[in-house]
Amino acid sequence: MIPYGRQDISEADIDAVIAVLQSDFLTQGPMVPRFEQVVAAHVGAQHAVAVNSATSALHIACLALGLGPGDWLWTSPITFVASANCALYCGARVDFVDIDPHTYNLCAKALADKLEQAERDGRLPKVVVAVHLCGQSCDMQAIDDLAQRYGFRVIEDASHAIGGKYQGEFIGNGWYSDITVFSFHPVKIITTAEGGMAVTNDPQLAERMNLLRSHGITRDPQQMTQAPDGPWYYQQIDLGFNYRMTELQAALGISQMDRLDGFVARRHELAKRYDQLLAGLPVTTPWQHPDSYSGLHLYVIRLQLENSSKSHRKVFESLREQGIGVNLHYIPVHTQPYYQQLGFKTGDFPQAERYYAEAISLPMFQGMTDEQQYQVLESLSFVLSGRHP
Ligand SMILES: *Cc1c(COP(=O)(O)O)cnc(C)c1O
Q: What is the distance between the alpha carbons of residues 284 and 273, in angstroms, rounded to a whole number?
């Protein structure tokens, strides 16, 4: 089976992890701060807080922004559940904004309309999570304009987007948001096995996330309520978690960062070739906004069902049967049973639901060969037209 995503591990990555195993620190050593510096410098952010997953990063980002009971967080229904669950962890409520039919990201126009209504109803969101689906940035300038006007805070869920750019600058530079979150799960662009990071230009947000990732405990006398009792002293000044990243993970991350630009460039080559190979088939290939240089975590096609005798499900099953590890990103979050029980219904976000009925993620990963890519074309061609290309 050709997987839809797969990590790329080099000898240098392996050596970096082994060196940590032989060192004094497996956790809470020098590698995590070094990894944070490398990522912050690369994306152009002032501060970075490494954690054990992007899910944890979203949670502490929400807490740092003060999200709590009585507040609303809005995000896109076409995302991994973690982009919405982070609100529920904080006791806040979730709502969704339908997607743009071209980029499949949260639609800035739909956001503007919903904000107007929410202002009348007195239920404006405190936080909006803008998810850069497939690695393509949301329309951050428009979202930031709305944030200024309505007074909400913005988290970029850039789990798909490290190494990508918006308006010519790396995603994560924080021009149009408060905090940006990255994921380093093995299917994502770079990996630390499990892992995530939150970057920000606000020192207070960074300090608060730093505290929350490690039990709410500080060793900084400046943050304490009294002078230290002695050199052993620490204080718990907030209720935090153990969301720390290990030294092994950070060393792997540092080593992977050396190849980030090459990873994204290779994904662009693969995407361009897919665009060409698929041109004659009844599918819609990904549309890229001119402001965007996508990280291209995913290559999602939409079936033109009106031009095909095969159902979405049939095409998907046939591809899997032919050894193509296709996937579907994502099932609209508001249709998950947990969210339906919160009151959401099928039909609430029609663009998202239509997307779900047509989308298929084709294999896309660093080590994918031209031959494997041709195999994807052959299999897709076979199921859609009954012929080989
Ligand atoms: C993968 C992903 C996450 C969660 O990342 P983890 O590191 O696995 O916790 C969150 N949001 C999006 C959009 C993702 O794709």
A: 14
Which pLDDT score, from 0 to 100, does residue 202 have? 98
Other beta carbons within 10 Å of 318: 17
CB of 53 shorter than 6 A to ligand 1: yes
Query: Rounded to whole angstroms, how far apart are CA atoms 76 and 89?
Result: 18
CA distance linking residue 252 with residue 249, whole number of Å: 5
User: Which ligand 1 atom sits closest to the C-alpha of 55?
Assistant: 9
CA 330 to ligand 1 center in whole angstroms: 12
Q: Which residues pair with 217 in a beta bridge?
A: 236
Please confirm whether the linkage preceding 330 is cis (ω < 30° from 0).
Answer: yes
pLDDT tens figures, 327-342 = 999 999 999 999 999 9
Q: What is the Å distance from ligand 1's center to 53 Cα?
A: 8
CB of 55 within 6 A of ligand 1: the answer is: yes
Q: Which fold has domain 260-385?
A: Aspartate Aminotransferase, domain 1 (3.90.1150)
DSSP characters for 200-263? ES-HHHHHHHHHHTBTTEE--GGGSSS--SSTT--EE-S---B-PPBHHHHHHHHHHHTTHHHH
Domain ranges of the chain: 11-257, 260-385
- Amino acid residing at 112: A
What pLDDT shows up at residue 308? Answer: 87
The CATH classification number of 11-257 equals 3.40.640.10
295-309 tens-digit pLDDT:
999 999 999 999 889
